[in-house]
Amino acid sequence: MGFDRGLIAPMILGSILNPINSSMLAVALTPIGRWFHVSPAQTAWLVTGLYLATAVGQPVIGRLVDTFGPRPLYLTGTALVGVAGLLGVLAPSLGVLVASRVLLGIGTSAAYPASMFLLRAEADRTGMRSPSGILAALSVSNQVIAVIGPALGGLLIGAGGWHLIFAVNVPLAAACLLLGALRLPRRAAVPGSEAQGPAGPGSKARVDAAGMVLFAGMLTAFMFFLMDLPARPASGRRLLLVIAVLAGACFAVRELRAAQPFLDLRILGGNVPLLATYGRQLLAYTTSYAYLYGFPQWLTASAAGLLLLPMSASAIVVTMITGRRVEVRGKLLVGAATQIAGCAALLWAGPGSALWLLALVGVVIGVPQGLIGLANQNALYAQADPARMGSSAGLLRTFAYLGALTASAADAAFYRHGATTGGLHGLSLLLLGIAVLLLVGVLADRSLRRAGRASTS
Question: Using one digit for the tens of pLDDT, what is the confidence trace for 397-414?
């Protein structure tokens, strides 16, 4: 029996809902601010709202996927995307528009955990250990959408105003609902999950609502701490950190005592390779996003967009070339080494640097973006408990968002007095240290030698 190819279209279409909405908004913040007569600091909540909702929602909805199966969560999530699109079109105020973005973040959180669950279920059903080609297709589709999203957003705004970037979610959600209803299996149990406890779809597992609420509170407080780290008064930062620590302590106590926890900390704590994968995701995305946010601020506005294209093109090409290769360690070693090279090259960047040299740095920075995210995704596929694939996949995305927020805080700290060359060099030194730490972590992780070796695609 071969892999059910009918699953590919709904998985890919569902997975692009988040990046297309994130990237389109980049060109809509200014017209939205003018429409509602608000400042850039206020419209920034449109970005923050989606980040918060998605970072918290991915593992929470992933656990629900593990419990109830991918189909109901995928259909519910994509339906919420359509509702969020309509709410955004009709929003009478910025507050309502932010609410629509939060709802959008929750809705788009379902597709990736559902897809990873389905991939695992299909692989176990067919005996295919790692569907690397399909994992690569998911990664490439997200990268391509992130590149074309701003251009698409600009076209929609030019055709009918910023409202259209919300309206486009309605037909996209309708297409996902149709494909999901027609092609997603009503039952998609992971073989062997019954032996690991009542966590599979259709079981009598109860939802750990208290654990989910404590996890959401811990993560939200910590993310707010990261977002306003350079600007918030010290007392406010301490309060947020205290709330995050207290919520985390309560969460740990709750999960260790619960019969059917939201996150089984005993299993997670004993799975050192998976924890290492989460750590690599945090480090790699901190560097990637710090470059993505920080480098354009140092450049002139006209050169910024042009010089980010080589990075995006490089990431897409590398993913397409290496995507079907299931070996993980080699990708991580090359990715970490090129991150070091890219960060070191930024130390020589200055006002007199030739544009072609800066473009070449972008090409180098794009290589690890095409390698590390895909390699971590493949590693997680091999390392995660099959009965908890949805929540494990959701946590991988959460660590990427934490990296993005850490990068934003680092950019703000080094550019406190403007995007100067000195600030860029200071940021580059920090990122160089993070990239070195990533390489050391890859070299020290012996489990990566086995990851993907026995796979077939």
Answer: 889 888 887 887 788 788
Q: What is the pTM of this model?
A: 0.81
Contacts for 259 with CB less than 8 Å, ≥ 6 apart: none
Roughly what angle, to the nearest 10 degrees, separates helices 29-36 and 94-107? Answer: 140
User: What's the mean per-residue pLDDT of the chain?
Assistant: 85
Instruction: Give the type of residue at 312.
Output: S
Question: Helix H segments across 258-328?
Answer: 265-270, 272-298, 301-322
Residue written as tokens 């991918």?
70
CB 143 within 8 A of CB 292: no
Residue matched to tokens 């695992």: 120
DSSP string, 218-259: HHHHHHHHHHTTTTS-HHHHHHHHHHHHHHHHHHHHHHHH-S
As a dihedral over the C-alpha atoms of residue 431, residue 434, residue 440, residue 445, rounded to 10 degrees, the angle is -130
Q: Are 65 and 193 in contact (CB under 8 A)?
A: no
Q: Show the tokens assigned to 154.
A: 């600009």
Q: Which of 151, 172, 156, 38 is CA-nearest to residue 98?
A: 38
Can you read off the two tokens belonging to residue 107?
A: 């809705």
pLDDT tens across 50-67, in order? 888 888 888 889 989 988
Q: Which two tokens stand for residue 20?
A: 């297309």
Give the tens place of pLDDT for each residue, 136-146. Answer: 888 888 888 87
How far is residue 262's CA from residue 110's CA, in Å, rounded to a whole number? 16
